[in-house]
Amino acid sequence: MDKETIYILAIESSCDDTSAAVLRNNKVISNIVATQQIHEEYGGIVPELASRAHQQNIVPVVHQALLKANIDKKQLSAIAFTRGPGLMGSLLVGTSFAKSLALGLNIPLIEVNHMQAHILAHFIHEENNPKPKFPFLAMTISGGHTQIVKVDSHFTMEILGETLDDAVGEAFDKSGKLLGLPYPGGPLVDKYAQLGDSHKFVFPKPKVKDLNFSFSGLKTSILYFVQRETQKNPNFVEENLNDICASIQYTIINILMDKLKKAVKQTGINQVAIGGGVSANSGIRSALKNAEKNYGWSTYIPKFEYCTDNAAMIGIVGYYKFKSGIFASQEITAKARYII
Ligand code: KG4
Ligand code: ZN
Predict the structure, then answer these.
(1) Which of 11, 227, 262, 313 has its CA 20 to 30 A from that of 220?
(2) Nearest residue by C-alpha to atom 10 in ligand 1
(3) In angstroms, rounded to a whole number, what is the distance separating the alpha carbons of residues 112 and 319?
(4) Which residue numbers in the chain have pLDDT < 70?
(5) Tens digits of per-residue pLDDT, 40-61?
(6) Sign of CA dihedral 222, 228, 231, 237
(7) Atom of ligand 1 nearest to the CA of 307
(8) 276 in contact with ligand 1, CB cutoff 6 A
(9) Residues 114-144, buried b or exposed e (16+ Cβ, 10 A)?
(10) C-alpha of residue 218 to centroid of ligand 1, in Å
(11) What is the model's pTM?
(12) Domain 7-121+307-324 adopts which CATH fold?
């Protein structure tokens, strides 16, 4: 190992995925994610079950990440872990594990903000994947988050807007649930939406000031719509599934794009990067492509495995913090609410 090489072992356990990754400088050499299936039966994440599953998964996941990276624990330069935001019981598992391992190996510990990691995931080195240039706008859209952030440097970020209630992924998942689709409904709503007419049904868009979002009203209007129509025709949902999904997706993507356009106008920054699980959505992807053509934006979407919750994104923050000498002490604790 030459002296310049930095090896970071990263651990992510903020929600329902247990993940460990090894980075050699800014390149990912392993990224293992154990997704917890148990929550499917409940139609949403059950925090107590999530922390128990993290307990079971963490040792094998870290072991696999080291094995796949083909490096020994003794070669590690530092351990990076998600401090928050997230579910307290879940965060505690990763935090305690990272602290003990760093102590045992006598190497530095690096605490990472999960939201910052979703944004810096754009800087994971990948061939033919251009990185955004500072300053840029980052929109993080997932089952747990909906934020627009102005990013001035790796460590200087300002939240311009965020959801006041549900996250956009939740809006997709809850819509799916109302239509009788299994959890998580997002990918299925997307799949059916691609076969349907997005103008068949009209759902109201919320009137939220500034760059904030709200999705709870949409959920209620879909609920009343489904109740009203199934009273008239019990087979309404199955007969119109594609068109309902297309119309819901069209509304959600419009809400996101309206705010992004507003943020671009307000800041004069037209470099737009998205991340989080909802970045997989075909509607947002084509809306961004159109914005490149129509408004001259430059848009960035990381590889899908770095969009959903993963430890590689924690590792890239670890890499930048290591280079800047920003380390955490053994007194550090998990933080369920942790603002960028
Ligand atoms: O980032 P992620 O894996 O986990 C967190 O929530 O942090 O995001 C998962 C969310 C779920 O709500 C899921 O339904 C949504 O991302 N999702 C999608 C699509 N793929 C995943 N939503 C809409 N369209 C998709 N193709
Ligand atoms: Zn996340």
Answers:
(1) 262
(2) 143
(3) 11
(4) 1-3
(5) 888 778 888 989 999 999 999 9
(6) negative
(7) 1
(8) yes
(9) bbbbbbbbbbbeeeeeeebeebbbbbbbbbb
(10) 18
(11) 0.94
(12) Nucleotidyltransferase; domain 5 (3.30.420)
